[in-house]
Amino acid sequence: MARRGSQSARFTVSVPAGLLEELDRMAAEKGYSNRSAAVADMIRDELVEHRQRTGRGEVVGTLTLVYDHHTRHVQETLTELQHQHHERIISTVHVHLDEHHCLEVLLMRGPAPEIRRIGDALIAARGVKHGKLTVTSTGRDLPG
């Protein structure tokens, strides 16, 4: 338990020796100053994932789409979907990859289930060859 006024709480965890060795190796490779910092980041990462899965809180996300702009109506469909959700889509970047393919990256913010639905609809649009939604926390609901 944390003491009053304390910024950190100390707790004991028992893990197999081999797992601890791997944690120490990973922490060193990633540049953590100590294993506590590495474990705290892993806990935060799992909390973000859990909140996203359970629909708790506001999230921010990046949706990356690659599509063939020659596919009939793909640009109109993507634009229409983005306009329907303009309150959740913060920004977009459009890049011409070659004479046929475009890359579009959308920045979104809102409740996790809504961001997931918007991402799924855009990824499922005819002409989209690949799409990936990456979601993270706004940071406001994560301690230290």
Question: Which helices and strands, and how do they pair?
Answer:
Layout: H1 17-30, H2 35-54, E1 58-68, H3 74-84, E2 89-96, E3 101-111, H4 112-123, E4 128-137
Antiparallel strand pairs: 1-3, 1-4, 2-3
GO molecular function: DNA binding; DNA-binding transcription factor activity; nickel cation binding
Keywords: DNA-binding, Metal-binding, Nickel, Transcription, Transcription regulation
Pfam family, one: RHH_1
Describe the 3D structure:
- The chain has two domains: 38 residues, Orthogonal Bundle (Arc Repressor Mutant); 80 residues, Alpha-Beta Plaits, CATH 3.30.70.
- A hairpin with a 4-residue loop joins strand 2 and strand 3.
- A four-stranded antiparallel beta sheet has the order 2-3-1-4.
- It starts with 16 loop residues before the first helix and ends in a 7-residue tail after the last strand.
- It has four helices and four strands.
- It is of the alpha+beta class and 144 residues long.
- The protein is elongated, with a radius of gyration of 20 Å.
- The relative contact order is 0.19.
- 40% of the residues lie in helices and 28% in strands.
- The longest helix has 20 residues.
CATH class category label of the largest domain: Alpha Beta
What does the radius of gyration come to?
A: 20 Å
* Main sheet strand line-up: 2-3-1-4
H/E element order:
HHEHEEHE
CATH fold-type name of the largest domain? Alpha-Beta Plaits
Return the CATH architecture of the largest domain: 2-Layer Sandwich
Q: Please tell me what the overall shape is.
A: elongated
Count of distinct strands:
4
User: Proportion of β residues?
Assistant: 25-35%
**Count of structural domains:** 2
The number of helices is 4
**Structural class based on helices, strands and sheet pairing:** alpha+beta
Which percent bin holds the helix content? Answer: 25-40%
Spans with pLDDT under 50 lasting ≥5 residues? Answer: 1-5
Cα separation of the termini: 16 Å
